[in-house]
Amino acid sequence: MSDSQTVSAxxxxxxxxxxxxxxxxxxxxxxxxNWRWNWLAAYNFCTGQKPQKQDIRILDAGCGTGVGTEYxxxxxxxxxxxxxxxxxxxxxxxxxxxxxSGANRVEFHHxxxxxxxxxxxxxxxxxxxxxxxxxxxxxxxxxxLAKKLAPGGLMHIFVYGELGRWEIQLMQKAIAxxxxxxxxxxxxxxxxxxxxxxxxxxxxxxxxxxxxxxSLENHKDAYFADMYVHPQEIDYNxxxxxxxxxxxxxxFIGFSNPSFWQLExxxxxxxxxxxxxxxxxxxxxxxxxxxxxxxxxxxxxxxGRPPLLKAxxxxxNILLTAIPELNPCIEGFPSQCFFNYDYQIVNLSVxxxxxxxRCDGNSTVAEILAGVQMELNEVRTLxxxxxxxxxxx
Length: 393
Fold this sequence. Notes:
Radius of gyration: 23 Å
CATH architecture of the largest domain: 3-Layer(aba) Sandwich
Strand content: 15-25%
CATH superfamily of the largest domain: Vaccinia Virus protein VP39
Number of domains: 3
CATH class of the largest domain: Alpha Beta
Strand order of the largest sheet: 3-2-1-4-5-7-6
Shape: globular
């Protein structure tokens, strides 16, 4: 057995022991939404417009117990979804989860990322959350996935960040030292880790960090095991992250939490430093931000395969003839106060509220503005806030 196969077998054993994520199975669709898993909302985020088609193929690469897969099915009612995973135990839970909630447009395959070429055809959306950093060769993994991404398609990825996981790394190493030749016995690893946390002083840095960030989840053994006794983990920083992205051959579209990556958030009191930073490239700018705010526990971002055209709504005539509709990932509308796609509170003016109420998917911007006292730039603001999707004429 090669080193890679040995690692993959160890990872499969962990998730057969502790199927992950350990979320409860429901006899109804899952609550709320994650906009990154909604094709309309994600495509709009990446391109500034509504996609031309919704009858797409989606791959959930490393689907685990199907928590994300279930959302992908329910949030994309015209899509066909495929889930793959290395763990037979996790897949069994995923199948039951989707059957119970009525997520019936999905099929599952017991496959590693490396063998994804065995699946027929290409995919318009590939979701790979919390997986690549657990593979022996993430570059090989991302390249295998990239080959299955259709032209104009999107890939959504989540990988760990080293700066915000420093304390986690320390605990992982401490548990491994105490386990000795019992490493690979994941139940023993969880027991050892629990004993360490119960014994350390309350003001211990690792204890405080765990309580602040992870304790709500880590009371479940599956979460604790995934975090502290995983047999394979590669954590990234901006420099190594972009080595991975470049190796994919795909275009980097952007982080899915763009507000974090604004330097003004950190250095607003020093405009001269912000001006200096404008001489940096994007990647050096990202690196500067994570060095100044080393809480980055993960990176979540989109890649795309050309041609993926970004909309330009700067021409008034083009904007006026576009057809707006509500972003499907908002909660609490109709109301002047509701949650946006990122579960942040939005407060609308009376005119903005009237405009959104008239976004029926048939009327153009010009037709709606004929009955609403609003400027065209205010429509652009609604678009920038991801509250509406636009279809070009």
